[in-house]
Amino acid sequence: MKKIIRQIVSLTFLTFSLWQSVWAQFTENEVNTPGGIAVINLNHSTKPEAFYENKQVMVIGNPGNWQAIIGLPLNSDIGTHELKVGNTTKTESYQFLVSKKQYAEQYITLANNEMVSPSPANLERIQSESIIINKAKGAWSESDKVSLVFDLPVPGNITSPFGLRRFFNKQPRNPHTGIDLSASEGTPIQTAAPGHVINTGEYFFNGKTVFIEHGQGLITMYCHMSKIIVIQGQRVSRGETIGHVGSTGRVTAPHLHWGVIMNTVSIDPSIFIKE
User: What is the domain-level CATH number for residue 79?
Assistant: First the structure.
């Protein structure tokens, strides 16, 4: 019995130490900026629910020491924002500031103009796919064991960082909502953390794609794959192979587009990659 208690205490201390080490490494550019996160301390005796822009956000910690972790959209307004927190007895509002962050521009030339200005038939496909993709981005499972440290899914260099203001064939398009990792065709893609597969599919822009939910709406997205070897509903462990790098969808060469989503919005994946 004493051995079991020591193991529990050791595990609890390890979890707390990991939590401290993760957030201690955040930089000013990662916190309270568009495309980053906000961390709000909540002094509640029981775990509360928290909502930002009417979307539930992650709450982790311990009684009296909870933290709400908010994903901030790239188009966040600069200034004061509000988090609403409640339980069965009361509701409170917490205010926090979002500061300006400037992202670089990127100009890409595509030979296939359909990937820049799609035909009416492809626009219809894109619209129908967006419903499926948005549903995947809204997935939520209750869990008190959410990993906040990710492994890179492929051992490649980042060729396009998060947040780039993109121009395809000199035409402005949506910002880059993930990071591009260089890798050759067929390179195995591994899960960044434990979770379960919430969606697989082949989409017009994203190509062959896998979405994995890791708990409380923290989701990773793997795009442009050549092959998918997992199925929806499957549980996966950290480092498990889910498919292979490819060049499906809107690409100029084989690579992995890797995205991270919190409370339905895309945030910078590099936040969760720590040495």
Answer: 2.60.40.1590
Query: Which residues span the domain enclosing 113?
Result: 105-272
CA distance 146 to 234: 17
Tell me the pTM.
0.87
Q: How far apart are CA 186 and CA 224, in angstroms?
A: 11
What pLDDT digit, counting tens, does each position of 149-208 carry? 999 999 989 999 998 887 887 787 778 899 999 999 999 999 999 999 999 999 999 999
Our CA angle for 192, 99, 158, nearest 5°, is: 30
Residue 180's DSSP bridge partners are 160, 257
Residues 15-42 pLDDT 10s: 344 444 444 545 555 689 999 999 999 9
Which of 62, 80, 98 terminates a domain? The answer is: 98
How many domains, the chain?
2
Identify residue 95 by its one-letter amino acid code: Q
Same-domain pairing of 88 and 113: no
